Amino acid sequence: MKAATIVGILLILGSIAGLVTGGFSFTHEKKDVDAGPIQISHDSTKHVPISPIVSGVVLVAGLGLVVVGARSK
């Protein structure tokens, strides 16, 4: 397999995941008070949205790379 085909397949899979999930979220633990043996903290959850337009553009780019990789033999 050509490198362009592999990258194209990875872009296609990533764009499909972006379209299905709509983004990703992660949790970060933040310390509020750190006074010797006493620690007070809380979890902060952030959500990073992925636009469907961006996912569509990446999907088209991935399809283009798969086609280019298949034609250049």
Topology:
Elements: H1 3-21, E1 23-35, E2 38-49, H2 52-71
Antiparallel strand pairs: 1-2
Helix pairs in contact: 1-2
Descriptive account of the structure:
This protein has 73 residues and is an alpha+beta fold. It has a domain at 1-23 and 49-73. 53% of the residues lie in helices and 34% in strands. The protein contains two helices and two strands. The protein has helices at 3-21, 52-71, and strands at residues 23-35, 38-49. It has a two-stranded antiparallel ribbon. α1 packs antiparallel against α2 (52-71). It is elongated. The model has no long low-confidence stretch (mean pLDDT 90).
Short description:
It contains 2 helices and 2 strands, in the order H-E-E-H. By secondary structure, the protein is α+β, with helices and mostly antiparallel strands. The longest helix is centred in the C-terminal third of the chain and has 20 residues, at 52-71.
Separation, N- and C-terminal Cα atoms: 10 Å
The number of strands is 2
Mean pLDDT metric: 90
Q: Which residues sit in consecutive blocks of at least 5 with pLDDT less than 50?
A: none
Q: How helix-rich are the residues, as a percent range?
A: 40-55%
Largest sheet: 2 strands, antiparallel
List keywords for this structure.
73 residues; alpha+beta; 2 helices; 53% helix
